[in-house]
Each structure stands twice: as C-alpha cells, then as structure tokens.
Amino acid sequence: MFTHTEERPYQCDLCEKTFKTPHYLRQHQQIHTRKRLYKCSYCEKQSDTDGSTSQPCHRCGGGKDFRCDICGKTLSQQDGLKIHQRKHTGDKLKYCKECGRSFPTSGELKRHELFHSGVKKHLCDQCGSSFTTAGDLKRHKRVHTGEKPYKCRHCDKSFSQSGSRNKHERTHMEGNYSCEQCDKSFSNLSSYSAHM
C-alpha cells in the first residue's frame, strides 16, 4: 500500500482532496453527502466522529493555547503544535523539488507546489479572480458577501475566518506574562519575548 510514500492517488471529485486509500476517500466523501454533521462549538469544524455539539473538538481544544517548549510560540491546536515543532527538529519535513523550501506536512508541500505550477483553476464568478485552491476561493467569496460566520464568545465582533476569531479571542484572556519595566502584560510567551 502507500503507507510510507507520499502517493495519494484517490481524489475527491467535489473538493479535490486526495487520499492514500479508497476507504479514506469514502470516509471523507461522507462530509459532502450528509446534511448535518457534528459541529464543534468553538472552531465550527464539522466532523462525523465528535458526537458532542456542546464540547470543543479534539483539534482545537476550545481555545486553549498549546505552547512550543522550544520557541514559546502558542498555537490553538495540539496537532498544530506537533507539526510546528517539526520545524525545530527537522523531523518528517517535506522538501519542494523546485525551490528547496521545507514543509512540515505533505499537504502543505502539495499546496506550495501548486503555486509553482501557476495553475489557478478556481474562478470567482463575481469578480473573475482566480485561486489555486477551492479553500482560497471560498475565503475570498466572503469579501463579496460580507459573511463573517465566526463570532467572538466574549464581545460582539465577528470574523470571516476562524483563525482570526481565535486570535482575537485570546486578547480577552488575562495576560500571563508581565514586563517588570513597564507593567505591560502579554497572553503568550512569544509576544512577551518580542517585547523584551
């Protein structure tokens, strides 16, 4: 099989994601065919495995910060922290054959390689702008609709992307790191370190 290779020959015809096995492709395609899946109450991602609509999913941790022991950077997802740490350790990095740039996941490398190809087959029907990925087009369309589906749980602000909302929500949290020289406080070590 394709366990130790990067080959993902099974492609979803609806969103173009690729998979190593037909089983994973069929499992993924359920996302497109079901009317309603379970939705994380925090990051609003859909999943067919998380049966609780009132609890945050295992991916986002409900806004909990995951801190890198090496550089102090905080991430909103535990999986994101593991992938981030590959940049420090060099473990499991994938390299672009065109420019040599390294990526922590095969998916990121594949997305990057699309930019080298210049292919932008996802076209906005309102302004004609073209995009490399379907996700980029989906985010772009919110410019036209004004849609801001990600609402802050602490104030009335709304955001067009969940990452922007999550970053904003962390500003509501009390600062854990205080500068002894100016009494300014920071919610994460990386911001505090940059200030110093």
Describe this structure in words.
Its main location: nucleus. Pfam families: zf-C2H2 (PF00096), zf-H2C2_2 (PF13465). It comes from Oreochromis niloticus (Nile tilapia). This is C2H2-type domain-containing protein. GO terms for molecular function: DNA-binding transcription factor activity, RNA polymerase II-specific; RNA polymerase II cis-regulatory region sequence-specific DNA binding; zinc ion binding. The chain has 196 residues and is α+β, with helices and mostly antiparallel strands. It has a domain of 52 residues: Double Stranded RNA Binding Domain. 33% of the residues lie in helices and 14% in strands. It is built from six helices and 14 strands. The chain has a two-stranded antiparallel ribbon with strand order 1-2. The longest helix is centred in the first third of the chain and has 12 residues. It is globular. The chain starts with 9 loop residues before the first strand and ends with a helix.
In short:
This protein has 196 residues and is of the alpha+beta class.
Element-level helix/strand string: EEHEEEEHEEHEEHEEHEEH
Strands in their spatial order, largest beta sheet: 1-2
Number of separate strands: 14
- The low-confidence parts are 49-53
Instruction: Note the main sheet.
Output: 2 strands, antiparallel
Shape: globular
GO molecular function: DNA-binding transcription factor activity, RNA polymerase II-specific; RNA polymerase II cis-regulatory region sequence-specific DNA binding; zinc ion binding
Pfam families: zf-C2H2, zf-H2C2_2
Main location: nucleus
Subcellular location: Nucleus
